[in-house]
Amino acid sequence: MLCSVSGWLEPLALKFTVCAGVAVLGVAVKLATGGTPMRAPVGYLNVRGRDEQGREYRTVGIDPERAPLIRWVFEQYATGEHTVVELLDTVTARGLTTVPTPKRPSRPVGRSTLFDLLHNPYYIGIIRYKGVEHPGAHEPLIDVDTWERVQSLLNSRKIADERRRKHDHYL
What we know:
This protein is of the alpha+beta class. Helix content is 36%, strand content 13%. It has helices at residues 10-15, 22-32, 67-78, 84-94, 111-119, 144-156; strands at 44-50, 56-62, 126-129, 132-135. The strands form two sheets. It has a two-stranded antiparallel ribbon. Helix 3 packs antiparallel against helix 4 and helix 3 (67-78) crosses helix 6. The longest helix is centred in the C-terminal third of the chain and has 13 residues, at 144-156.
């Protein structure tokens, strides 16, 4: 099916010459306007609202319960004094959990989820969708300098030989 678009959507339609329907173009429009076309990550909430005409809109807002914990994790890791596993134990004790859904209750954040969280540019206002980064309209949780420090620390600690390990020996 060939998409036919006129008006201000034409530049977006050039990216999608063949589409599976309106849904693909809808995602492109959402990304072009800074919207989030997926579930919001931990620290944000998907919010539904109504405008003056009574039309429903969906946006992303900051989660007042989880956002301070996410900021704290980024700030602490950026100091270079903590490992991800240490921070995971601490932040779990402080109460960081996933957002509950109708089918799944909230549960503590896992190790791989925390690594993904620290790599996610969504927290500085950039939406990564299918490998392409787009500017987002949501409020960033952390500043770019902190995020870049965290990225450099994560990249420098990738090598297995440089991991800090604690061994309790019985001898």
